[in-house]
Amino acid sequence: MRLTSRIGLPTLLLYLGIGMIIGQDGLGVDFQDAELTQVFGYAALVVILAEGGLSTRWRLIKPALPAAAVLATVGVGVSVGVTAAAAHYLVGLEWQTALVMGAVVSSTDAAAVFSVLRKVPLPSRLSGALEAESGFNDAPVVILVVAFSTLDALDQPAQHWLLLPGAMLLQLAIGLAIGLAVGRLGAFGLRHVALPASGLYPIAVLALTVLAYAAAAMVNGSGFLAVYVAALVLGNARLPHRPATRGFADAMAWVAQMGLFILLGLLVNPSELLDDFWPAIAIGLGLTLVARPLSVALSLLPFRRPWQEHVLMSWAGLRGAVPIVLATIPVVNGVAESDRVFNIVFLLVVVFTLLQGPTLPWVARRLHLGQDERTVDVDIESAPLERLRGHLLSVTIPRDSRMHGVEVAELRLPRAAAVTLVVRDGTSFVPDPTTVLMRGDELLVVATDPVRDEVEQRLHAVAEGGKLARWLRETGATGIRRNRRPGE
Q1: Which of 481, 394, 389, 382 is nearest to 442 (CA)?
Q2: What is the mean pLDDT of the chain?
Q3: Distances, alpha carbon 471 to alpha carbons 403, 451, 487, in Å
Q4: Whether the predicted pLDDT of 387 surpasses 60
Q5: Are the C-beta atoms of 133 and 68 separated by less than 8 Å?
Q6: How far is CA 127 from CA 57, 78, 120, 270, in A?
Q7: 446 to each of 4, 199, 383, 473, how far by Cα in Å?
């Protein structure tokens, strides 16, 4: 895993290989249950999307939301059409099968994008757009795959296809509304209810994201969009024990990915892949070199992005487990040549992940994007002190934070808050007002309940703007602009 991380290669390929080794052509385990794989795949994708939303900072993706929304809707439509045409004319698939193929591979994979992009120092509007797109585009793609996989899909009247975009938008709107509702109500509840043990907070947060999926699915809404939106709201809601929650979600996502990729490896028969290798390459080239760049260019046309960003976003359209899971839908529905679709998708994902993942940092450097990007935020964990009506904030100063070199007094925290302890190189000491903070320090800050949010905003502002953040009108991590008040 360390090697795959170092070269920018999603670790999913390792677990796909393990599944193939265990499978029928390896150790002889015979597993052919596509329906069970689809059920487990959906469950794993819920956890993966939840982790992505919980670990995504709202202030980074907020400016990129319009572009991400267009990429996840209009961009998906363009990609489906172009890829389906390539599958029909280059490989000879029937139109229904070709449309299923186009829809299946048009979704960028959240797990692959999150694992690779967060190790590439890209400008925030680029990384934010790509992460948000990967979180949003699963929902419309699932709707399209299900629509194209019905046995009489092409026999439907024209009115059916004219109504499909409206039905899709309705499902997305329902998913969005439920995700926002569950996220906000859950955040309100977790901030005002003291759970018996701190370890219950991560479980409660993840359970809320699952609740969002279930609630949306029950009313024919987009469950995947509901999960991502609910997790995004909860992950940016200043809940108690946020780092612990993100760590728990990250661990659960790893477990989900490992189980899912091994299961997908079991489902495929390597002996059947060779015949579909060149069709997979042809469709993959059409997707990577034509469909994805065209969809990016048309989607970003209103936003006037430079051509370098178009190129990078085209190359960063990573595929992973999502297309392989979606390829089980036509298998379960009995679509013609669905087994061939699954094999082609499997090969396409493996080959082009090997090509795109490791080369993405090189492409970013060649395009001169992201060299000056650095992390300047601080990580703050809040533990509620219910009986004392206060909070104990644990603050870690990262390497590139501008809080380095700032004296404790220069933090200018509210009067109802104080830095009570500093841990430096394994040694703890009580600071005085002139103590200079250094990178790698861990601080314990005690704050009363009324000023907790103000303390967090101030710490984020200093981390980004240094000791002059107050006068420079810096914006904190929450996006709230703090103006200088009279008497300050």
Answers
A1: 394
A2: 80
A3: 16, 20, 13
A4: no
A5: yes
A6: 11, 22, 9, 35
A7: 41, 21, 10, 25
